Amino acid sequence: MSYSLIFTTAFAVALVAGLLVKFWLASRQVRHVARHRGAVPAAFEHTISLAAHQKAADYTIAKARFGLVEMAWSTALLLGWTLLGGLDVLNKLLLGWLGGGMVQQLALLAAFAAIGGLLELPFTLWQTFRLEERFGFNKMTLRLWLADTLKSTALGAAIGLPIAALILWLMGAAGTTWWLWAWAVWMGFNLLGMLVYPTFIAPLFNKFKPLDDPTLKERVTALMKRCGFAAKGLFVMDGSTRSAHANAYFTGFGASKRVVFYDTLLRQLDAAEVEAVLAHELGHFKHRHIVKRLVAMFALSLAGFALLGWVSTQAWFYTGLGVQPNMAATAPNDALALLLFMLAVPVFGFFVAPLPARLSRKHEFEADAYAVAQTSGADLSAALLKLYQDNASTLTPDPVFVKFYYSHPPASERLARMTAA
Predict the structure, then answer these.
(1) First to last CA, the chain
(2) pLDDT tens string 134-172
């Protein structure tokens, strides 16, 4: 049996197995949530109404069922691009039109992104204007959605194409260790993005204004000083122009760090509860969760680039995924290698997804514990309950689904830990 056939078989088996597991997990989630829809869990019966509990259940089930359809479509597209020869056809069409070289490779990347975006567009529109609209979360108009889409596309092209061109050039000019140089460029780009995003990119999509509530500002400033944390500013973002979901987050890196509150969050929580939520976010910094995740990203991306550097030289990697590699010396395979690698890695990586999810839940528990030590546990519990309710997060998720997918622990587990503490 040839290496190409072995790889094709492994890819097909992993794809089918992953799809079956995803369908099984989603089905478990739907059944479990539906089974507990009729009554509020005992731990929440005095704080969550039956109507709110049932809305969360219906929202969770609707999202899961929508996800099943989207999953089937994404799998069909993946098969179409790979084993059914879609990427091979696109590559040959562009070769015939543009010949080999950098222009053809960039055109291949751009065409793949454009076609993929168009094919997934109906699901994006349905999720925003039907699913989120049905449960009262969508606040976007079609005009705003179009503006965001155009800005995202233009920004992606302006940033992505030069980075892609540089990596493609390194693949062809830097010898056998090109992947190490490409990894350094990619990491530098990510770090630079963390620096410039708060000041230059985020304001293209949302309006930010300094926090002007004097009482809240005083509490937040005192908390940050007490925790030894400094930020460039406290800002309120107009999240309500797009969604009713609420959030707060830190953004930036080094001296450019900012604290950002959604305006929806400030409307839903009182000052003490906002302080408790911020203390939770500070807990992530105190426990160096951000640094640990950056280090993990650096290590995984280095391993990924090294693997890409090897498989890009193997003919079976291309033929095993339904693509005939370019044979002419004037037509490199670098863009093909990048696309095939991005398509194949998630298929095999799906089976280790529970590991980072488990680590993330551990970090959330640690951040909760830090917040309880710095502020009131009762305030944090009340804030979390409001956020779970306002975001229609189910209180009764399936335990297996949680272990596989959830980056945050379910409300029952988080509140039980706080009560014990």
Answers:
(1) 59
(2) 998 888 899 999 999 999 999 999 999 999 999 999 998
CA distances from 416 to 82, 378, 419 (A): 47, 12, 5
Concerning whether 379 is annotated as a catalytic residue, the answer is: no
Tell me which residue has tokens 């160096």: 288
Catalytic residue, from 148, 281, 366, 413: name it: 281
Q: What is the DSSP letter of 363?
A: H
* Contact of 376 with 272, CB cutoff 8 Å: yes
* 336 neighbors 82 (Cβ within 8 angstroms): no
Q: Is 281 a catalytic residue?
A: yes
pTM value is 0.89
Which has the closest alpha carbon to 364: 297, 277, 304?
A: 277
Q: Which region, left, alpha or beta, applies to residue 199 given φ > 0 means left and ψ of -120 to 50 means alpha? A: alpha
pLDDT above 60 (res 329): no
Res 365: pLDDT: 94
H/E stretch holding 250: strand 248-251
- pLDDT tens profile 170-217: 998 988 999 999 999 999 998 888 888 878 888 888 888 888 888 888
Q: What residues have CB less than 8 Å from 54, skipping those under 6 apart?
A: 37
Would you say the C-alpha torsion 384, 390, 395, 401 has a positive or negative sign? Answer: negative
Inter-residue contact 112 to 91 (CB < 8 Å): no
> Among residues 273, 364, 368, 398, which one is catalytic?
368
